[in-house]
Amino acid sequence: MGIFSRLFGIFKRKTEEAPEDLPEEIPLSALEINQETTTIENLKAKMDLITTHFDTLKTQYEVLNGKISSIEKMVKEMYEMSKS
Question: SS3 for 50-77, per residue?
Answer without folding.
Answer: HHHHHHHHHHHHHHHHHHHHHHHHHHHH
